[in-house]
Amino acid sequence: MKAEREASSELRAKKCFFDRFLLPLLTFITTFTNSDSRLSLPSGPIQLQLTNEEVRAESVIFTSAALEGVAAFLSPFVDNVIQNPSVYMRLQAEIDDAEARGLLSQPIATYGETCKLPYFMACISETLRHDSPAQTILPRLVSKAGIFAHDRFIPGGTEIAASPCIIHCNTKTFGEDANVFRPERWLEDPKKRERMERFGMWFGYGDRECPGKNFAYLEIHKVCLELFRRFEIQTECDKYADWGKLYIKVFQFERDELDKLKREPAPGSLEHSLAS
Q1: What are phi and psi of 155, to 5 degrees?
Q2: 25-64 exposure pattern, b = at least 16 Cβ within 10 A, e = fewer
Q3: Which residues of the chain have pLDDT under 70?
Q4: pTM across the whole model
Q5: How far apart are the C-alpha atoms of 4 and 239, rounded to whole Å?
Q6: How far is Cα 181 from Cα 130, in angstroms, rounded to an integer?
Q7: How many C-beta atoms lie closer than 10 Å to residue 223's C-beta?
Q8: What is the pLDDT of residue 66?
């Protein structure tokens, strides 16, 4: 991206997020990691020093997690809304009503204003539950004393993990229709909502929760609202069945291609003998 912008006078003239944030950060990383220095943070109760490798790792985490995580949320948010006509109509009506009543700032609504739209907030929460941006397991080490879980003792130092996807489909917490995208579940019972939020792992959990959670909320709230505030979004696939056919075709294609790549067994090998 840097090379592309430097080669085009038209792109250089248009200031964007890359110029204001990513380019200075990239310049800093390049300058720092090419030296043998260490980055010392201000002195205080805890004196911290970061090596060039640590600075590089932290920079990648904060930039890629922020950009990729938000992008991974926007796609399922839009898809889930437009694939459910009743959800789309109710969400659009709420946004249009707020616009007509002057409750949304110009040119972009504030984060606080988005939080006052109940159904919009329910759609945000339901997308985080139904299609969390980070679906990887989140490993933790058991403390030295060990713990009991489901009548079994797990000794200290053991690595354990939980899958957000499985937890978010737990019917005892999220209802019998946990596999269905239904924002209304977040508006039905305040106590149930508190329980669902307590078991939500869309930004991790506990002390290792995503440090950029608040910034991510700011981004997804403002971007998602403005998308449906400014545009009428449609899809060429009217039903989930159409998407299912598409997925089947993609997976079948991948399987066929993998079959073509399978090597022929070498003459004299066990595989060759079994094949013949």
Answers
A1: -70, 155
A2: eeeebeebeeeeeeeeeeeeeeeeeeebeebeeebeeebe
A3: 1-6, 11-50, 56-67, 135, 236-276
A4: 0.65
A5: 39
A6: 6
A7: 15
A8: 62
